[in-house]
Amino acid sequence: QLEESGGGLVQVGDSLRLSCQVSGRTLVNFYIAWFRLTPGKERETPGKEREFVAGLKWSVENARYSNSVKGRFTISGDTVYLQMDSLTPEDTATYYCAAGQVFSTAWDLYSYWGQGTEVTVSS
Fold it and tell me: N or C: which end of the chain has fewer CB within 10 A?
């Protein structure tokens, strides 16, 4: 019910737009959030803790962002987009979209997940 696309290899300072195709009427009024898992976290964290990036209530505005991306990333749309500008190597990660019934920055409170899309920012 969630499918990400749009990842790739870009240069420092470039922009990239990720898409999360949300399907299934059961997800109406769910919160859709973007999380990311960096290569370092993937290796050292057994539970594979994912960092909250941005989220919104699906089909409603009022987006929320982590401090690390505020001003650079924008989330919007029925197909939930994550517009990423001024990318840095620290943004290199696998990006996931997730759906949950409550808003949270904690990844383990989201019930539905996409397969992830990789973003690599090269210096």
Answer: C
